[in-house]
Amino acid sequence: MSKRHLLALYSNFDEAEAVVKELRSASIKGFDVNHDLIVKSPIEHPEVEEFLGNKPVYVQWFTLGGALMGGLLGFFLISGAQANFYAQIKGGKPIVPFPPNFVLTYEMFILGGVFISVLGFLICAGLPARRSPLYSAKVSEDQIGILVKSDESAANSLKAIFAKHHALEIQEEAGK
Amino acid sequence: MKDIREDIAWAKINQDVLKSLENPRKLYWVILFVAIAMVGVAAGCEIYQYNVGMGVSDKNNSHVWGLYIATFIFWIGMSHSGTLLSAILHLMHADWRKPIYRFAEAMTTFSLMTAGLFVAVHLGRVWQIYYALPYPNERGLWPNFQSPLLWDAMAIFTYLSSSILFLYVGMIPDLAICRDRMHEGWRKKLYTWLSLGWEGTDRQWRNFRVTYLTIACFLIPLAVSVHSIVASDFAMSQQPGWHITSFPPYFVAGALYSGCAAIITLFIILRYVFRFEEYMTLPILKKIVRLTFAISMVWTYLNLVEFASVWYSHDQASKDVLIQKASGTYAPFWWGMMFCGSVVPLVMAFKRVQTNIPVLFAVSLLLNLGMWLERWMIVAPTFAHGIYPWGWDHDQWPSFVQWGMVFGSFGWFTLLFMVFCKVFPSVSMYEVKEMVYHRSQATKKLEETGKFAAAGKGAH
User: Fold this and answer.
1) Top mean-pLDDT range of A66-70, B62-66, B325-329
2) Which residues 6+ apart lie within 8 Å of A41 measured at CB?
3) Mean pLDDT across the stretch A164-168?
4) What residues of chain A lie within 8 A of the CB of B158, using their CB?
5) Best residue in A50, A63, A117, A140 to probe B by mutation, most B CBs within 10 Å?
């Protein structure tokens, strides 16, 4: 069945919240509120997450992996280079000196953590991305957008809910 | 007085900031032209030094570092301002930082880039800069991984690359605004490419928030480690005047101090040049001034700790260096450093001065002069009065080549910074909107509570 995209614009978060709540409570056939709803906003607004429900973030796992990988890579790279000193006279000093090596290990720990966090962010946020089928530049200015994807049959019910909550504008486009 | 007007329309914030990308005051072009001329002076000095040899810089066996490394430390220190404003104050939920942190982050990036140039210039053979990098035993180099100089290269690389990523990631939502508002042309293409298709979806914001916080958490210990390692370049040697335990915190405090002073200077310039009076407000300036004053007192205290620990130690060579600083060839500069770094900031304690722009502009320049002198007074007197008398060289004076490079470095930094501010939004639009939104919500709640309380229906 062909899908239709609808984008409704609102002037404030309260109206957007009311729409999302109503979409959740009204079970509309051909529209899955958990997968087919996206809220777009010009600012980071933690309350959006509250009314959308808990959605996990995995960036911190990338961070942990990156930091550990960076630290281990740094430590073993340096220690590997120093291992050559088996063949050289070190005057009784340790071949792999622990306190000094921790400095570069620490720097590599941070470097790995930062780089992989950014990579994790791009993956988890789905960036770089193509524009979604409907986009309004007003979302980056001062309006809150609710983008939904539904079966053709559900489009009219969704539009009615959007209009009921005083949408400033409703855009629609036939999707694939 | 409020930090920012709570009734500014979000669309107006976009409009005002985007206007700065197209239509600055004429002073912008004057600053840019002067900066290019200053870079020209440095380029001329570098070409001369490159062709004739390092001898033209007047560095000799005692004075092997000269102004180049002193200025290198100065620029590394300057970079701490961005971390302070964007990372430390972000974690402390100080939302007044929001209109000004972007340019402070840019300062971090460009001052690190400027500092990096001095390593190349100091080496003389710039084409062999890769010898400074901490890679394993290629070409039989056998780098000493226990040397703070090698740690320094790694720490600065980590700090520079992390700062660039931090600046870029924090700018993505604003780049999307630029993409949406700009007319067709190279700018639109650039913003479209850099904004990576950002649309402000809940998924994007959710991941953005965690990433930004994570990088901020990494940047704070990184910034502290960078300047502690720079301090270790000195403190881990046995040279008199350098072998001091308090050097790492002293360097970190000095870095934050010079960074804050530079923020005041650039705040005043950007406020006028880009007509940011509504965003870079006097109450925000007042907060930075108070922060700078507090840090200046920490720096003064650490200076006194250093002098006292040298004076009451049994290390005669270190004592001699201290006496030589206060009464020898470098005395005017050393006392100048004390005056600019410890006496001048006292005027910032007066409320009337805290929002007086001409006075603050002059004070911030003096503070930075003091902080540059501080770095010079760390490097030069020890080289002039080492442990052994045959190394004493009190009359060494840097040649015009060294002075020219130092002069040009300020031009280079200004050039990069001003070009950045013209191409990218130097005020974070989405964060100013957040600030305005949250503050207006808080005021609304307060008013409602007030009404309830007046009607005897309050919670308490």
Assistant:
1) A66-70
2) A13, A16, A48, A139, A144, A145, B200, B202, B205
3) 86
4) 107-108, 110-111, 114
5) A140
Work out the number of other CB atoms within 10 angstroms of the CB of residue B211. 28
C-alpha B158/C-alpha A74 separation (Å) is 12
Q: Please tell me the distance from the alpha carbon of residue B392 to that of residue B382, in angstroms, as a whole number.
A: 9
Average pLDDT over residues B217-233: 91
Tell me whether residues B136 and A80 touch, CB distance under 8 A: yes
Tell me how many degrees the CA angle B339-B342-B347 measures, rounded to the nearest 5: 95
pLDDT band for A135, please (50, 70, 90 cuts): confident
Cβ neighbors of B135 (< 8 A, separation 6 or more) are B143
Name the token pair of B344. Answer: 């001048």
Model confidence over A7-17: pLDDT tens digits? 899 988 888 88
Report d(CA B258, CA B372) in Å as an integer: 8
d(CA B38, CA B411): 5
CA distance linking residue B396 with residue B403, whole number of Å = 13
Tracing tokens 């959605």 back to the chain, one arrives at A55
Partner residue facing A41 (CB), from B172, B205, B222: B205
Q: List, for residues B111-136, the tens digit of each pLDDT value.
A: 999 998 898 888 888 887 777 665 66
What pLDDT shows up at residue A5? 86
| Whether B10 and A42 lie within 8 Å, measured CB to CB | yes
Class of domain A3-56+135-174: alpha beta
pLDDT at residue B460, rounded to an integer: 37
Chain B: give the shortest CA distance to residue A40, in Å: 4
Q: Is pLDDT of B410 > 90?
A: yes
Q: Which of A40, A55, A117 sits opposite B206 (nearest CB)?
A: A55
The Cα of A104 is separated from the nearest Cα of chain B by a number of Å equal to 6
Average pLDDT over residues B427-446: 88
User: Which residues in chain A touch residue B151, judged by CB atoms under 8 angstroms apart?
Assistant: 103-104, 107
ipTM at complex level: 0.91
Q: What are phi and psi of B331, to 5 degrees?
A: -55, -45
Q: H or E segment at B88?
A: none
Three-state secondary structure string covering A45-90: CHHHHHHHCCCCCCHHHHHHHHHHHHHHHHHHHHHHHHHHHHHCCC
Q: Which fold has domain B10-446?
A: Formate dehydrogenase/DMSO reductase fold (1.20.1630)
Show the tokens assigned to B228. 């502690």
Q: Is B151 helix (H, G, I), strand (E, B) or coil?
A: helix
Domain boundaries, chain A: 3-56+135-174, 59-125
Quote the percentage of chain A above a pLDDT of 70: 94
Count CA atoms within 13 Å of residue A6 on its CB side. Answer: 23
- Evaluate whether B84 touches B127 at the Cβ level (below 8 Å): no
pLDDT at B457: 46
Question: Could you tell me the maximum CA-CA distance found in chain A, to the nearest angstrom?
Answer: 84
Which of these ranges, A162-176, B6-20, B108-122, B395-409, has the smallest mean pLDDT? A162-176
